[in-house]
Write a structure and sequence with these properties.
Layout lengths: L1 E7 L4 H4 L14 H13 L7 E4 L3 H11 L5 E2 L16 H7 L1 H9 L13 H18 L4 E6 L1 H11 L17 E7 L3 E6 L3
Parallel strand pairs: 1-4, 2-3, 2-4
Antiparallel strand pairs: 1-5, 5-6
GO cellular component, one term: cytoplasm
GO molecular function: phosphatase activity
Protein name: Probable phosphoglycerate mutase
């Protein structure tokens, strides 16, 4: 079993500006996002991490550095945010008006349709996350790790591990720089202990 502190990065300018879709755009934290990461550092002070992982995007890396108080971050490309294709940088109400069918497709069957027509499918997302977490289980049994990722990938991982239909991933809310605490084992899968602490 591995104990995982799973974070979403702190607030970015895209989050603050009507929650624009920020997949692969590499923008940094706002002042509020930095403050959120410092709050998380206080919340995590009693944890001893055997490893700290982050998405390669600087909003996640900087959250990981601040929240852990350490510079030694293991960056893994499999933790990068969802490729949102043509939705990137837009608010939901904007792209829903431009192409309502692609949004309906994504909401109903994200396993088979690409986000923003040219992005990833939910199946591709979960496949790369399963690769990361399987490797984590092989290397860190009995350990505690911090993982800083993104809203989309974290929710897809949790939904898939809890046996939810992937189209329901949006029903899970993960706030900026909030703690999700879980355990993961080969025998029992995920046990979700805390959400948005």
């Amino acid at each position: 079993m591995v104990t995982i502190c799973l974070l979403r990065h702190g607030e970015t300018a895209y989050n603050a500006d009507g929650n624009r879709y920020c997949g692969r755009t590499d923008i940094d934290l706002t002042d509020k996002g930095i403050a959120q990461a410092h709050r998380m550092k206080k919340l995590l002070k009693d944890f001893q991490f055997d490893a700290i992982f982050s998405s390669p995007l600087k909003r996640a890396k900087n959250t990981a550095i601040i929240a852990s108080g350490k510079e030694e971050i293991l960056v893994d490309m499999r933790l990068i945010e969802v490729d949102f294709g043509q939705w990137e940088g837009k608010r939901a109400e904007e792209f829903q008006l431009e192409d309502p069918q692609s949004w309906e497709n994504w909401l109903s069957t994200p396993e088979h349709f690409r986000a923003g027509n040219t992005g990833e499918t939910a199946t591709e997302i979960v496949t790369r996350l399963n690769s990361f977490y399987t490797e984590l289980l092989d290397k860190y049994v009995g350990k505690t790790v911090l993982i800083v990722g993104h809203n989309g990938i974290n929710r897809f991982f949790i939904a898939s591990q809890l046996g939810m239909p992937l189209k329901n991933y949006r029903k899970i809310v993960q706030e900026n720089s909030a703690l999700t605490l879980l355990t993961l084992s080969k025998e029992d899968g995920v046990h979700l202990l805390k959400l948005n602490a």
